[in-house]
Amino acid sequence: MKKLTLIIVTAVLCAAMLAGCATPAAETSASVVPSESAEASEPAAAANTDYMSWTGAEWDAANSDEQFAAAEAVLLKVGDAMMSNYGELVEQAKSDETVKAQIDEQVESLKSSIATFFKSSPEATLSDLVAASTQAVESLGN
Q1: Contact assessment for residue 124 and residue 118, using Cβ atoms and an 8 Å cutoff
Q2: Tens-binned pLDDT, residue by residue, of the chain (142 aa)
Q3: Residue 142 and residue 133: Cα distance in Å, rounded?
Q4: The pTM is what?
Q5: Helical packing angle, 2-22 and 97-120, nearest 10°
Q6: Could you tell me the maximum CA-CA distance found in the chain, to the nearest angstrom?
Q7: What is the three-class DSSP state of 60?
Q8: Which of 8, 46, 125, 127 is the most buried (most CB within 10 A)?
Q9: What local confidence, expressed as pLDDT, does residue 14 receive?
Q10: What residues have CB less than 8 Å from 121, skipping those under 6 apart?
């Protein structure tokens, strides 16, 4: 059951990364300055923002915004492990509202997969999920 859950989570991560990469990014500038709206959208009340250390208990205790931020962190970690500058590309792509909506939809889907992962492995951490997902995706490429 744990292997099946991991495969499903990996598939969702891959789909989310492909959605972020497949959409044309806005023109890039020499420097990217975060906007005030991007800062305002981050959860303000996150007590433990070291998302990679979260177990099922922290996931269950988190509100929806915190879970979204944690799922996005997982997506970016796996993406960065597979492709350099993935996180920067995603942030640049988010400047297009249509693309941002697609990425946010994928992150919401990933939240469900992470919840399923923690139901089958409550003592595992998000870091464990990232490591296993990265390894599974790399093995698909070989």
Answers
A1: yes
A2: 455 444 555 555 554 544 444 444 433 333 333 333 334 444 433 467 899 999 999 999 999 999 999 999 999 999 988 888 888 999 898 899 999 999 999 999 999 999 999 999 999 999 999 999 888 878 877 6
A3: 15
A4: 0.68
A5: 170
A6: 47
A7: helix
A8: 125
A9: 53
A10: 2, 5, 56, 128
Burial of 8 (0-12, 13-18, 19+ CB in 10 A): middle
8 Å CB contact between 130 and 74: yes
Structure tokens given for 75:
């997506």
57: nearest Cα among 136, 127, 13, 121 = 121
Taking the CA of residue 98 as centre, how many other CA atoms within 13 Å lie in the half-sphere pointing to its CB?
A: 5
Predicted pLDDT of residue 13: 55
Note the residue count of the chain. Answer: 142
**How many CB atoms are located within 10 Å of the residue 127 CB?**
15
CA dist 111 and 29 (Å) reads 32
Calpha distance 91→25 (Å, rounded): 9
